[in-house]
Amino acid sequence: MGLTIPVILSSVNNLSDARYAAGMGVDMMGFEVEPGAERYVSPELFKAIVSWVAGIQTVVEVTNLTPELLASIQENYQPDFIQYEKLAGISPDAIPFTTIQKIPFEKNINTLDTIGNQINTESKYVLFELSHWSEWRTHQDKIKQINSHFPAFWALPIEKNDIPAINELALKGVALKGGDEQRPGWKDLDQLIDILEALEEN
Questions:
Q1: Secondary structure of 69-109 in the HEC alphabet?
Q2: Residue-number span of the structural domain to which 155 is assigned
Q3: How many domains does the chain have?
Q4: Three-class SS of residue 41?
């Protein structure tokens, strides 16, 4: 048993998401560690969650990676990966962690050449953030073309019924997003459960 495709569960901030996803075989879990982030996770909470999900690779997620933030990550988190959108005052080869470069798009995807110009070759993976691109289902040829060129994870607005199409695209990975607990220990996991169960190998 396992998942048919590598999965990153991003923006995790509670144990309910983490424990369920770990049990389903998610490959990586992402935590927003930039102060002021919507789902900011403190070093204490990060360590508490990670202690329950041994064996899962951890990703700290930031928008702007600065030398000061990098020093804080080194001291307080020690993840397996750093995911960033922009570098400020630091070069890619100076980052002492394996990196994932996140490239966000508002509504659609640019040309292959434009995407290539935005990618740092030092990054092990690229995460294409297209969570609002509802038209992706009619552009699968473009996705296949891009996917053949880059070690890319895709954040797409997928539903349970989309999983056959996702598997057919042979993506290198998908990124799903965690949510907030309504109260400690209680959370509606229905959407996450539907997608991960549909991705589960039989």
A1: HHHHHHHHCCCCEEEECEECCCCHHHCCCEEEEEEECCCCC
A2: 7-199
A3: 1
A4: coil
The residues, ordered by sequence, that sit 6+ positions from 10 with a Cβ below 8 Å of its Cβ are 30, 59, 61, 155, 175, 176, 177, 178
- Predicted structure pTM score: 0.89
- The torsion defined by the Cα of 186, 154, 133 and 85, in degrees rounded to 10, comes to 90
What's the angle, vertex CA 154, arms to CA 37 and CA 52, rounded to 5?
Answer: 55
Q: Which residues contact 140 (CB under 8 A, 6 or more apart)?
A: 165, 169
pLDDT tens readout for residues 119-134? 888 899 999 999 888 8
Whole-number CA gyration radius for the chain? 17
Residues for the chain: how many in total?
A: 202
Task: Note the pLDDT tens digit of each residue in 1-13.
Answer: 588 899 999 999 9
CA angle, 14 then 161 then 193, to 5°: 25
* Any domain includes 2: no
